TrEMBL record:
Family from the record: Belongs to the ABC transporter superfamily.
Lineage: Archaea, Methanobacteriati, Thermoplasmatota, Thermoplasmata, Candidatus Thermoprofundales
Entries under SMART domains matching the protein: AAA
Organism domain of life: Archaea
Protein name, per record: ABC transporter domain-containing protein
Family annotation (PROSITE patterns): ABC_TRANSPORTER_2 (PS50893)
InterPro entries: AAA+_ATPase, ABC_transporter-like_ATP-bd, ABC_transporter_ATP-binding, P-loop_NTPase
UniProt source species: Marine Group III euryarchaeote CG-Bathy1
Length: 313
């Protein structure tokens, strides 16, 4: 069953009297089946969060259509909003309320039993703050609370806007595990914006890549996107002292250099071995280097952080 169908979506913002509007997203089309997990990725300023907010009816599009489970979302916004949650760092809380009071308030508004999120709060270690005021919460704890409120609605679709960005490693891992479990249990459809390729790699099966002008670069599965990379291996190098770019390029032209950090990309084991041998020949100028298979992190490097052409994916 189609969970989401987006056709020719356009969103503009006014720029001033008698000035043309700023078109942030343009002619975006894609579709998702129930249970799909999709990440929206792209360079800074390409309209990722704008697209997510438009899908969640926070912004209304200037043209195009959005269907949620075959229903026109824009014509039936109230009905549509009962089926999804939008979780964003912009959600603030009444700082003098306790965690218990905050959960109780939102549960009353949503007409849901507060007990729904207790297991989540316990798994993420936030339940110990049950009687503490929100003003004592760290940013990471507030991020956990926002996600808990998203789950409280028991949504069919979850829109996530960088919800784990402020979490430490252990809490981030707990949240990822819980989202994976919820998706498997409830057939939850997930649409997320996140700059962390590890999070995208763990949670998402599809990728929507936006260009800098707010248009679609590609929509594909994670596996298809990885298969389009010309490279199978990467080599991360830490230098003891800087070297000229020409010397770094003599190792391999498929590289990205940032001061004392150099990242090389190898097409196959023969190419990888050549890079390693050349690095060894540089001797004491190399502090250390590590090799690994390419991952979603490399997609981010290749597309958004320069040093290689967009044609690589």
């Amino acid at each position: 069953m189609r969970a989401l169908e987006v056709v020719d979506l356009v969103k503009e913002f006014p720029t001033g009297y008698n000035l043309p509007p700023n078109r942030v997203i343009e002619d975006i089309s894609f579709e998702m089946d129930m249970g799909d997990r999709m990440a929206i990725i792209g360079p800074n300023g390409c309209g990722k969060t704008t697209l997510l907010k438009t899908l969640a009816t926070i912004y209304l599009p200037d043209s195009g259509s959005i269907k949620l489970f075959s229903q026109d979302m824009l014509k039936h916004r109230s009905r549509a909003r009962k089926t999804f949650s939008f979780v964003s760092p912009s959600l603030n809380f009444q700082s003098k309320l306790t965690l218990s009071q905050t959960i109780s308030y939102f549960a009353t508004v949503l007409q849901k039993p507060p007990e729904i999120v207790i297991p989540f709060l316990k798994r993420t270690n936030l339940y110990k703050m049950w009687n503490s005021r929100i003003e004592s919460f760290s940013e990471g704890q507030k991020a956990i609370l926002r996600l808990a409120l998203g789950f409280l609605k028991q949504p069919k679709i979850l829109f996530l806007d960088e919800v784990v960005a402020n979490l430490d490693v252990s809490r981030k891992e707990s949240v990822i595990n819980i989202i994976e479990e919820m998706e498997a249990y409830q057939d939850l459809t997930l649409v997320m914006v996140d700059h962390d390729p590890y999070v995208v790699d763990r949670l998402c099966s599809k990728i929507l890549v936006l260009k800098g002008n707010g248009t679609v670069h590609s929509v594909s599965s994670v596996s298809d996107l990885m298969n389009k990379l010309h490279y199978n291996f990467s080599v991360d190098v830490t230098l003891k002292s800087d070297i000229p770019d020409s010397k770094a390029l003599s190792i391999s032209k498929a590289m990205r250099k940032n001061n004392l950090k150099v990242r090389y990309f190898a097409e196959d084991e023969k190419n990888l071995k050549s890079i390693i041998n050349k690095l060894i020949s540089l001797g004491p100028i190399i502090q250390e280097f590590t090799t690994s298979s390419v991952s979603m992190r490399d997609v981010y490097y290749l597309l958004f952080e320069g040093g290689l052409d967009e044609g690589d994916v």
